[in-house]
Sequence to fold (760 residues):
Amino acid sequence: METIYLCIVIFLLCLAVFDLFVGVSNDAVNFLQSAVGARVASFRTILIIASVGVMLGAVMSSGMMDVARHGIMMPAHYSFHEVMTIMLAVMVTDIIVLDAFNTLGMPTSTTVSLVFELLGGTAMLALLKVMSDHTLEYTDLLNSDKALQVIIAIFVSVAISFVIGMIVMWLSRIVFTFNYSKHSRYSIAIFGGIAFTALSYFIFMKGMGKSPYLPENVRGYIEEHTNWLLLCTFLVSTVAMQVLHLLRVNIFKFTVLMGTFGLAMAFAGNDLVNFIGVPLAGLDSYQDFTANAHGQSIDTFMMSSLMESAHTPPIYLILAGLVMIFAMATSKKAQHVIQTSVDLSRQDEGDEMFGSSRAARAIVRFSQNLIEGGKRLFPAGLRRWVGTRFNTNEVELQDDKAAFDVVRAAINLVIASMLITFGTNHQLPLSTTYVTFMVAMGTSLADRAWSRESAVFRVTGVLSVIGGWFITAGVAFIACALVCLAMWFGGMVVQCGFMVLVVFLLYRSNRQYKEKSAKAKQEDDSFRLMMRTRDPELVWEMLRSHVRDTQSTVCKYIMEQYNSVVEAFATQNVRALRQCQKSTRRELDLLKKYRRQEMLGLRRSPMDLAIERNTWFHVGINSDQQYIYTLRRMLAPIKEHVDNNFNPLPKAYETEYEPIRRRVNELMRATYDQISTGQYANYRATLAEADGCKDDLSLVRKDHLNRMQKSHGTSMIQVDLVYLNLLQETQQLLSVMRHQLRAAKKFMEEGQGQLQSLDE
Fold:
């Protein structure tokens, strides 16, 4: 039996490595977002600084391990078998939940997932124990006070972080404006002194100052002379910052890099328990059982030893820190999650990852009305002066790729570091994700990054992310409770089954993500480059390329799906029809995304060209959508017909339609070739051939109608109607193809005016 549990412990430690990698992939956004978004240094430099912070934070994080040991459960009332069941259920659930969110590119919380998984697993076993032993009470088995304290601290941090971030950012922008280099001559020293002092207090004095690795006399001195040390730190750092400013050192960059170090250190100190706390608690449980059981069974040996504080060997902490650094540097999913957070807080407009929602529209409308009403309470002169401090046209970005300036990045990191380290020092595992994300959202709102053109999309994104957090809590609680229940009644067989399942799911998830990310990267790179380019002429050239790729891809897609629908109709393949139906829904959503992207590109293009080609741009993109609508109108009656097992398509009809299908394919292929290459030498011949094909289709339609009239309502009427719809929609497909080809040529051609093109 001991051998089996040794295997479980080894598996838990292996899962800890996976959990570290998966968790850091999600949480790297917390301390990298600001530095990466402001581009204060190269990504390599930022990683090095963050890595040092992570390693120091990991080594000094042993105090937080108590949350996993006795922060939620009361281990003195649980047997070794029960504790190991909870630990295994928590780790299995945690891996699956976090990897799912990473794959979706949604920032979630490792802290919330751990707390609610522990709560779910413990609550389930506590319920079973209370039902079987009436002498026990729920409060004996579940540390409800500590659990409630942790949960409240996590969710309250959302509102506190947002409000503090918004207020401090607004005050900072009043002082520095967006043209910070012009208005920071004297105030920069005070800002730098405050920032350095705050970070020093919360990281070095309260973090390192309580480290068990420091001598007792040093810790005592820091505790007794904290106020004096703070005053000295502020005075010295203020003078030093002024000197550095005179030497043309960017104090904001220095603050951002220091804040990155501090937040990485706070993250590792606060969140390391989320990744290795449970496996190490399982290891300690196994070591206690093997050393002190003395013949007791796994169901009778109680885990009172977990009530003691954790004494984590430094080697485990160092190894965990190294894994975190490796994951941070290599994970593609981490970069995906970082991009989500940066996009929601960027200063300029761009592709909105999230659409519009009714709740977001209501919030934006209410906020705008509230702001307009509040403005009347202040004098007009004060409002004008404040407006001059928020002139976004003066924003100073490090380069074209920066999402926001270094002032906001510095505020984000300083505030987040202070809040997270404060929670760590009070042994409250605040969600690093919640704090950093909401601080970033608060500062971006105060910075007027949410314009009327983008506010509803940004609010939708924030609501989606926050909704994902609450979903994380619910999913983690329920999933872990069910997994724990299954393991309890299913025994070792079910536990082994879950071990195999989690390995399989991780393998499949990583494989699918690589395929998906490779395709998405190719699609998004051109748009991101277009948004980062400031030259309107270059934007126009990249827009033409983007439009050409979109239209040619849609044309090829429609040709493939059209053939799939016709073949499925002839062969009665309902599965292929269902797949086509799902595919068209995804393609329509993708087209809406491309439309937003290309509209942004058109607005950044030279004004005369944008006005001149506007009509053909919209004709082209509307044609892309009409392709989908036409295909769906063709598909719907065919799928219903085949799905209901009605009469199949007669062979005579199939033979009659085959020449039409071949001509449609030739025309679609010719259209694709012309659009994709930009060579329109056969433009008029293609249009003429399409007109001829439409005329021939009209004759076939007329013959079919005559055939239907002569049949006098036979049993073939249903398939006759479906076939008639196929002929009609094929005609419409050719009409859309002509519109698309014509619009593509007019949009791409050089030196043609809009009015002239319309006359032609």
Notes: The chain has 25 helices and no strands.
